[in-house]
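seq as requested:
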Amino acid sequence: MAFITLETDKLKRNFNYLNKIFRGNNIQWSVVSKLLCGNRDYLKVLLDMGITSFCDSRISNLKMIKQLNPEVETIYIKPPAKRSIANVIKYANISLNTEINTIRLLSEEAIKQNITHKIIIMIELGELREGVMGDHFMSFYKQVFNLKNIEVVGIGTNLSCLYGVLPNHDKLIQLCLYEQLIEARFNKQIQFVSGGSSVTIPLIFQNLLPKGINHFRVGETLFLGTDVYNNTPYKKMHSDVFKLYSEIIELSEKPAVPMGEMGVNVEGHEVEFDDNQIGQTSFRAILDLGLLDVDEQHITPVDEQISFVGASSDMLVIDLKENKQNYKVGDLIEFKMDYMGVLRIINSKYIDKRIKN
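struct tokens:
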């Protein structure tokens, strides 16, 4: 069975590095744990590190976190679905919201459960994902302040996740100005200006982050050591907290070009080959990993001599060329992964999850 490992020592060093940066800039931050797909063992690693605030977009993941430690703060980071209202109130201390009718339902359910539910209202700053349009923002807040068992604790925004709109000083200044307008208009204190995510971290180093931004929601940079803004690794962080291993289940020298009438493959694609490859051979290996588990574009062999040939639902074929490394059946091939690769692998129930250190 293919398996993924989480190296706790490297993750701890990434956490300490980020924690020092945020504390030095008077910023609170919450760990976005959705990458872990509610895996109990991996979540326990985070809890053992002393993390006390978790963000997730799946209620089942928040439920697992609360089962492990009911005292930690949980934040539901997408607008709640109406059919999920009761569980949002039950398992999330805070939720991000953009719809007034949804917040009314949260209020009604919070009254039933005798809970004061906290919300962060998201504003649209150009990414065109979730967010209240600026023209309606003041009237939106006015309606929310009148609802029972609802406490508005923050204003927030999302950038870069849909179209890749990058955060900059001007956009985040807009967010801070909205917060100031709300406080002045309604005589209310807004605790969090949640304008930060992994992609916003470089603005701290460049001294371009407005002082009003005091809350970050961070996942990718913690787990992968990635400078998301520039799509490069941070030199002082570990990019290999997670590693993927897949076993060779067949290895043979085979022709470079298939033989027979060509149709479409399992993904519905027509594959073309260079006629110059006819008559050539190379060593090919089949791995116990497939499209059901991950898309090959999100994983990279550590051995740079290995290239992908193709994949089906449960098997991945790689080209070992002359097999100078003398791979054999039963050997493990190690892969690096990007964010979507790790997410897909951890979400696959067919991949074993292991912890190192």
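The CA atoms of residues 7 and 350 lie 20 Å apart.
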